[in-house]
Amino acid sequence: MPDGSIVNKTQAGVTTLDALIIGAGFSGLYQLLSLRDKLGLKAKVVEAGDGVGGTWYWNRYPGARCDSESHSYSYYFDKELLEEWQWSERYPGHAEVVRYLNYAADKLDLKRDIHFNSKVLSAHYSQSENKWIVKTEDGREFVCTYLITAVGCLSSTNIPKFPGHESFEGEWYHTGQWPHEGVDFKGKRVGQIGTGSTGIQAVPVIAETAKHLTVFQRTANYSVPAANGPLSPDFQKYVQENREAIKKTIQTTPNGHPFVISERKVFDVDDEEREKIFEEAWTKGGLGFRACFQDIAFDKKANDVAADFIKRKIRSIVKDPETAKKLTDIDHPYATKRPPIDTNYFETFNRDNVTLVDVKAAPIEAITPKGVKTQDGEYELDILVFATGFDAMTGPLLNIDIQGRDGVKLKDIWEEGPKTYLGLQVAGFPNLFTVTGPGSPSVLCNMPVAIEQHVEWIRDCISYLEDNKISSIEATEESMQRWVEHVNDAANVTLMPHAKHTWYYGANVPGKPRVFMPYAGGMARYRAICADIAKQKYPGFKLGNGKHGQSYTPPKISVDDLVEAAMVKGPGV
Question: Domains plus CATH for the chain?
């Protein structure tokens, strides 16, 4: 839409607001509460689905389960919510998370300001009016001062373009757009493409009822047992009595989890003691495995020792030596890709009705009417499941036609990779805020922790603008460039650059720029930087008077900095 006067505000179908929020997941719900109830702004949410839940609304595939422990995967801003809701399991399934978000939305009276079944098509900035004009697929139009995208990092599905896909005569599904009524695998020959976190969750559940399951693995993956189970009354009581201590832990640890990272290093102990420590961490299960030694994330030799332990565990579980060999032919250090946790994933390959196909050795050539054809032959299938992940972090934003000042398109600004300041704003897009956008800790963190920090920062920023009658805020080109450099520096301190073929770099989407997208400097460090910028009255941003604020240079970062940040003490439950 070209710049110019906004359409008549009384025109049918046009809603004028102070703020519009896109998405009704964890982010969108809390952002609505923060702007509507805390600041008194006229705010609405638009949501493509017919209910709340965000990522969990769409991701209902077999085995879909949170990999953050439930007592930390909660809103911590509301004491009553914490006291009234009790999770049933250590790692809640998708249905329980959706129930929780509905409970929160109802308790906080949020649904009256959410437009469901309303997918956003475009968001264009009108420079003359300093407003955003947002249009939806169902014909709605919104005019707003502040536009907040709460679209999620993992909500844009990625389906590889295999030749012949359209010819497949069976049923096919993507895990990120799973039918709400479910899929019946009984008596069916099922093929699953993909063995990332999602695939590792889905395989054991599909195998339980399928006549036969063929797993097409391109990249072998580490996984640690989730050791999931019901939460005991004693644990529930402990959590209720220690809420503040747990809150402090999740808000001050690098990844927002309720466990602390050990001070010891891998080679500080002898072989026998190290094996015992790994064994205890394996038995306890969960993402805390990577926290049993402080240097696993930074020291390749230390990481090799942890990786070897996991590979030995896989070989001890999987009975067929050839299958075990395929599952342990892993090409990256442990936890440099998203580290999955599982329930009986490796055990599932001992079933008679499960076959593992190595498509790195024999690539998929095409999808045929009857199944999947690799270089080694054709596998006949009735159902095909794509567990191929997402166009992560940037995809959900670039799927919307977002145009800033002078009609500049976000997709053009990000043509060579995402550029943001703090993962919150982009130069040339005034009053546009991106919750957990690229350049923020987001996917490297327990998401509700990152979300609460972002939402509250945005709320306080808008409050500052309103109180001081400042018409707009946007990142400067200089601050954006400096932040991108800082994000790269943080990644290079870790071992993550050793795994270039990961969705952290966009490597799962053909043609996507290879740029490390999340902030690896840790949530606690990021929180401190954001707080400092707000305290200094937003250096690195251009405020509505047209003048550039003072510049901001992110602090230098080193291994010692990240290790020190990790040494936070708390209950570690």
Answer: 14-156+392-473+524-535 (3.50.50.60)
